[in-house]
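Problem 3 from the worked examples.
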Amino acid sequence: MGMAALMLLSGCSGQPGTLGQSERGAEQGAHDASASSPSPGQWASNPLIWADVPDPSVIRVGDTYYMSSTTMHMNPGLPIMKSHNLVDWELLGYAYDTLSDGNESTLSQGEQSYGQGSWASSLRYHQGRFYVSTFANHTGKTYIFSTDDIENGDWERATIDELFHDASLVFDQGRVFLIYGNDDIHLVELNAEATAVKPDGLRTTLIEKASSIAGDEFWVPSEGAQLTRKDGMYYLNLISWPAGGMRTQLVYRAEQLTGPYEGRIVLEDRGIAQGGLIDTPDGDWYAFLFRDFGAVGRIPYLVPVQWRDGWPEYGIDGKVPERLPIVATGDGLNNLVASDDFDYASEADLKLAWQWNHNPNDNGWSVTEPPGYLTLTHQRVDSGLLDTRNTLTQRTFGPESRATAALDVSELRSGDRAGLAALQANYGFVGVEQKDSGRALVMVSGNAEQEQVQARIPLTQSIVYLQIRADFEGQRDQASFWYSLDQEQWTRIGEPLAMEYTLPHFMGYRFALFSYATEQTGGRAAFDYYRVE
């Protein structure tokens, strides 16, 4: 196995040395995960990020960590993040603006890609170049993006016309592979550029019925492959979800990439599972995993790992600790969420925290016309919120979060609705409904099958202030809806929404700015600001 490939699979940098060795003598500081002995009051805490950041894939290059994650049908997609200590993460950008342009991706002709889009990714660094793979069920394809500059460069895309589920990208001894599958875990060889399946390359099954070490019946068989190499051994992380049990972390190991593999359960604690192993410059090891946590989504946890007899032991006495001896410098959210006054020189400057629900229609939105506003102009007639393009979203977050928006509805037309939503399959929103007879404040709850106006209050002014308060403490998962006419006195409207994480959308709730037409095109909503706290 080549040195660059060895260091890639361990998340190590391009410095020579034995896989997993500490980079002894390197300058250490507060940024290193094990560089100091902080007092407990300074320690980082789990969850690292109380927001939807699922399917993490983490590597280390020198003393810097990079992570990719999943955002499904949102665009831009496949977020890339950076950290110096494994706990404080900065969003750098996305691997793509849009993944595909069919009806499913544009919410056209009654089609949609909710819960589809890009799934579990695999981030790698090899011979000076970064690679990240993903796949999409709605296109049936696998995608590999690459760049020489992960922080500022553009990503090149390669498309493979096969779907490799939850694949781990592997560079090994001058060859390139994907390890993938559900229950049965397979390997397929790619070409040297990692842009296509290699003709006549190796295809084999590595592990049959990988779930079997965790039980007999499963809600989710083994998947989520992530491969690491340490001290000459290959370690393959997988998860399974035994029926009646919890999401469980498995590790299989082998002396050769092609096996044979032996496996064991390494963690059963509150369903914290799926992810991979990562080492620090000082030689400590962690597993970067996530936990299903109700309506807020799937939230990341950092798990200490010790090695015994060639096996990783996850947690402390089999449990994931609440505190970590790592100095945390932020609140875990950093720029994953952001308030916005929409003061931009161009649309290209939109803050990274924002993602569109499906592909945007660039003719229907602006942050420069007029300056200082997000304007959403109706390009078509839609039946409801879930069918609406140009819905702009950010993550909700726990334990409690609040989003406030200022909305100018003076240019809405009859049949138009605009406002602030708690977006998932079962949604709720507070907004303004325009009719020929006048306008009204409304609070609406609904799903793909039905929609119900919970409250309607006549409105005579054209500027209104909207607010959603989301409570995820103890998985209460409740959202309440508020309005103000003067930014000072707030009044609750309608009924609280019992937020529910659903598989059709497969992501945590989003705060969403929206506007749509039900009768005619041409109307426009203008958002003056969005504030999150």
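Problem 4, a separate protein:
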Amino acid sequence: MNRLPLNLWFVLLAAILVAWAFSLTSHQQPNNTIAYTVFLNEIEQGRVARIVVDGRQLTVSPKDGSEPYITFAPSPVDTATIREWGERKIQVEVAPPRRENPLLGFLIPLLLVGLLIAVFFLLSRNRGPSGDNAFSFTKSRARVLTEAPKTSFKDVAGCEEAKEELKEIVEFLKSPGRFHEMGARIPKGVLLVGPPGSGKTHIARAVAGEAKVPFIAASGSDFVEMFVGVGAARVRDLFETAKRHAPCIIFIDEIDAVGRRRGGGIGGGNDEREQTLNQLLVEMDGFEKESSIIVMAATNRPDVLDPALLRPGRFDRQVAIDAPDVRGREQILRIHAKGKPLAEDVDLALLAKRTPGFVGADLENLLNEAALLAAREGRKKITMKDLEEAADRVVMGPARKSMVVTPKDREITAYHEAGHALAAHFLEHADKVHKVTIVPRGRAMGFMMPSRQDTLHWSKKRLTDQIAVALAGRVAEELVFDDVTTGAENDFRQATDLARRMITEWGMHPEFGMVAYQVREDTYLGGYDTRQYSEDTARRIDEAVQRFLQEQYERVKQLLTEKREVLERVTRTLLERETLTGEEFVRVVEGEPLEPPPSEEPQGKEEKDPPRVVPKVKPNLGGA
């Protein structure tokens, strides 16, 4: 029997005993009880035949033979009263006195108090290894894995430089004496920084698995509570636990929850968090020289951490675990593909090239989605088509096959996406077409997916062509329909953002020169801008952005006007097939015939209500 039902049994037992105790101490009057004054009147009238005296309780039998009744005298009946009743020819019997235990009135309350204390103690006992109860809220919530994790560096891919940095930590944990003999001080703390899903926790477990040492895992939010001093007490308990299991690794996930820069508590901030941080700083700097405890922490926001955490002697090293490159993505895909039946046409190297910007969690989710698709359709192996569909699901969401689309909206979407694709194909420095489709997916009615490579530097010519590609959808609508729609909303947002950053951040406009008018602080969770220019400069920037976008609009308009016949051909093919791969698109542009499409149900139904058109997603510029 587990502990929770046992506690409930004790509560039930206590309730029964309490009810029994009250039954012993309570005196309920029978239903046939009458008032003492009525009894005296009955005696005066001569209607009483017999009285049984039991202390103050009198059991009276009437002369007419009716049922006896009970009354209670104000005080115990004395001898004179009994003699008087005898003179009235009433038979009187006196019951022997009760022998009551004098300790009963003392033991029953004591028993009740003892039962309540026992029940409270049982309910407040530890319910698990974390000790999460009223008496142990100062204990650390850390999970202690006394046996080393089975994860090793072989299970980690896409971050070779980070693994090289951490191998030194592994060597120290395996043989710390070799370093101490040389007078070397091993880093006491290692801070893992990177975007969400990049594998920071995974590589920390791999370090513990390689070193064959215990792994103590906690989260930054585990320390801070509403009670003052609890966080600091939990930090002390965490490090005491680590000392008992040394050599070991302490891993604190999302350390920015407790390690934020101090000083924000003035005027209503959380001073408890600052006390917790102070205790963490003291514990990390208070290790003995011979200590074999390594503190590892992970965060997506290293920019908000307190500088005292990052100084030598605490978190000596920062190990960046960024999004993997194409080779790293292929290695990650091969690790997650183990145990999954892949068809012969699956090319993981090609899939890695088509997924720039994906982190480890995205790639694992991609393979899982592909496996679900294959199982849903009853296949025994995962095909390349499943993987392509899964990649689209991760980026854009599932295909909305049942979405109601009118013929007019479908035609507008086809021309719009064909315009994007043709601009990307004919502009020299633009990213070429990987896929173009008019299948609704997510919030988009269709999209053109570029074949983008991992790029560290974006040239001015490439950015200019990307802006022209973004505007090409609106240009195609205007050329064909002599009208425009709302479908270019996201295109304008992308083009305007690129043009403004070219002027204010990257010094790519001759009128403004090489001046940083705007500083962009990039973090792993997004960026924020700091404006550093006057209102007059802001007006000039707005005018320059507008002129620049208009120039690119006219440029791509001239291109699509010249390629109008190709635009019509690509659009007709899109309306027939709905999706074209990069290779199929090139063949259509060059006028070559395509193979007959496989027989599939059309994507979407034709109806009268047009949905809102918001194509494509914002391209990832990386660190451009």
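Solution to problem 4. Residues 235 and 280 are 6 Å apart (CA to CA). Residues 126-132, 600-624 have pLDDT under 50 and may be disordered.
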